[in-house]
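RECORD TYPE: protein structure
NAME: (spotted green pufferfish) hypothetical protein
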Amino acid sequence: MTERNRHTCGCYFSTSNQRSSQFYTDPFEAVKDIPNGATVLVGGFGLCGIPENLINSLLKTGVKDLTAVSNNA
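PREDICTED:
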Protein backbone atom coordinates (compact mmCIF):
# COMPACT_ATOMS: atom_id res chain seq x y z
CA MET A 1 0.00 0.00 0.00
CA THR A 2 1.45 3.34 -0.95
CA GLU A 3 1.35 6.49 1.12
CA ARG A 4 -1.04 8.00 -1.39
CA ASN A 5 -3.82 5.42 -1.05
CA ARG A 6 -3.54 4.44 2.60
CA HIS A 7 -6.60 6.43 3.70
CA THR A 8 -9.88 4.68 4.34
CA CYS A 9 -13.03 6.01 2.78
CA GLY A 10 -16.23 6.00 4.81
CA CYS A 11 -19.82 6.64 3.91
CA TYR A 12 -22.57 7.43 6.39
CA PHE A 13 -26.27 7.97 5.88
CA SER A 14 -29.41 8.10 7.93
CA THR A 15 -32.39 5.81 7.57
CA SER A 16 -34.48 7.89 9.97
CA ASN A 17 -37.59 9.74 8.85
CA GLN A 18 -36.74 12.56 11.24
CA ARG A 19 -35.12 15.67 9.88
CA SER A 20 -32.84 17.80 11.98
CA SER A 21 -32.27 20.81 9.76
CA GLN A 22 -31.50 24.10 11.39
CA PHE A 23 -31.15 27.44 9.67
CA TYR A 24 -28.72 30.09 10.88
CA THR A 25 -28.65 33.80 10.18
CA ASP A 26 -25.16 34.17 11.68
CA PRO A 27 -22.47 32.23 9.77
CA PHE A 28 -20.25 32.01 12.87
CA GLU A 29 -23.05 30.25 14.78
CA ALA A 30 -23.37 27.78 11.91
CA VAL A 31 -19.72 26.69 12.05
CA LYS A 32 -18.66 27.21 15.67
CA ASP A 33 -19.07 23.53 16.62
CA ILE A 34 -17.04 22.09 13.73
CA PRO A 35 -14.16 20.18 15.37
CA ASN A 36 -10.51 19.95 14.35
CA GLY A 37 -9.96 17.31 11.69
CA ALA A 38 -13.51 17.49 10.31
CA THR A 39 -14.42 17.03 6.66
CA VAL A 40 -16.46 19.97 5.38
CA LEU A 41 -18.51 19.73 2.19
CA VAL A 42 -19.51 22.98 0.53
CA GLY A 43 -21.71 23.65 -2.46
CA GLY A 44 -21.85 26.46 -4.91
CA PHE A 45 -21.00 27.09 -8.52
CA GLY A 46 -18.40 29.54 -9.71
CA LEU A 47 -17.33 32.63 -7.86
CA CYS A 48 -20.89 33.72 -7.09
CA GLY A 49 -21.63 30.45 -5.29
CA ILE A 50 -18.71 30.15 -2.88
CA PRO A 51 -19.67 30.24 0.80
CA GLU A 52 -17.24 33.04 1.65
CA ASN A 53 -19.01 34.04 4.87
CA LEU A 54 -18.83 30.48 6.18
CA ILE A 55 -15.16 30.18 5.17
CA ASN A 56 -14.31 33.45 6.93
CA SER A 57 -16.22 32.28 10.01
CA LEU A 58 -14.27 29.01 10.03
CA LEU A 59 -11.05 31.04 10.06
CA LYS A 60 -12.32 32.97 13.09
CA THR A 61 -13.00 29.77 15.05
CA GLY A 62 -9.37 28.69 14.73
CA VAL A 63 -10.33 25.16 13.71
CA LYS A 64 -7.40 23.17 12.26
CA ASP A 65 -6.71 20.21 9.96
CA LEU A 66 -9.93 20.44 7.95
CA THR A 67 -10.53 18.50 4.77
CA ALA A 68 -12.56 20.65 2.39
CA VAL A 69 -14.62 19.11 -0.41
CA SER A 70 -16.09 21.40 -3.05
CA ASN A 71 -17.65 21.06 -6.47
CA ASN A 72 -15.73 24.11 -7.77
CA ALA A 73 -12.66 23.44 -9.87
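COMMENT: The longest strand covers residues 39-42.
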